[in-house]
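Minimal example, chain plus adenosine-5'-diphosphate.
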Amino acid sequence: MTHAIYPGSFDPITLGHVNIIERALNIFEELTVLIAVNSEKKRLFAVEENEELIRTVTHQWPQVTVDHTAGLLVDYCRERGIRNAVRGLRAVTDFDAEFSMALTHRNLWCEFDTIYLMTSAEYMYLHSSIVRQVARMGGDVSKFVPASVEQALTTKFAKA
Ligand code: ADP
């Protein structure tokens, strides 16, 4: 196992995501954090802003690259010969959606597998949407996100 993809919205990257990245790096030699661009979803940060935040947060790991795609995950991976995705599991509520997503990917490309990593207990209830909500109301998000993301959120909502 050499290169895996870690797909998601990452709007913005949280300490829960970082926890999964660290765990994935114990298994894979290279990891691409891939922002899946969904035009139906309204984002807080532009894709490029989120990419830059992920690069800042992961700069200590040269094995991590950051990219985005508006296409199918399996197409992105097949073109690059990447056969594994990594996803994080929080509570059981994640399971249903993840199960159908993993099976859909495998239906589209039978050689593709998704590896699930359990989050640390302290991040079990941490979602990017919660971070956006707390930050929007002026709450303290320092327990949820890296300092650079906290700064970006402060700037974003100061402008709003
Ligand atoms: P969200 O917007 O819900 O935070 P993303 O689409 O950005 O989710 O998530 C990308 C991947 O990271 C998914 O596999 C998701 O389950 C995982 N993830 C998100 N937050 C956490 C967390 N706190 N702990 C573990 N995995 C997480």
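The mean pLDDT is 94. Residues 11 and 128 are 6 Å apart (CA to CA).
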